[in-house]
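Project standup — Tuesday

K.O.: blocked on the structure for the chain from last sprint. Re-posting the sequence here as requested.
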Amino acid sequence: MKKHLPLLAFIMLFSASAAQASDNTCLEKAQNQAQLTECAAVALKAADSDLNALYRRMQDRVKDDSSTRTLLIDAQRKWLSFRDAECNFTAVRSAGGSIHAMDVNSCLADLTRSRVRELQIHLDCSKGAGEQDAMQCAMPRAGR
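H.V.: unblocked you, prediction finished:
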């Protein structure tokens, strides 16, 4: 499994880049607001899928560490609440308008992609770290 971690990290980064390119292609082809809104919804769905897959990996990593697992769940729930509130605030000026759903979904997708990068850093933190450095990582090493 350890020898596949660099490949897995590359695939995650590539899929995030591919998702971003797909988002851009969708936006370039969109000819009206409904299509732009659909692009934003598709981007959010892809970002959420990446987030959920990574979060499941993190939960699996801490399945035998109930205190860390509880903290991870709490952090993710609070982050989701923050993300939703932040995007509602960010899109307040378009409320009631035809671009509101696009504004909210674009914000949600952007913040979700950022969260994926943050969680990936947590997941990769202890990889290659010495015993002392690994103590500064929230996630335990894989296989422990």
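K.O.: great, moving the ticket to review. The chain is about 75% helix and 0% strand. Confidence is low (pLDDT under 50) at residues 1-15.
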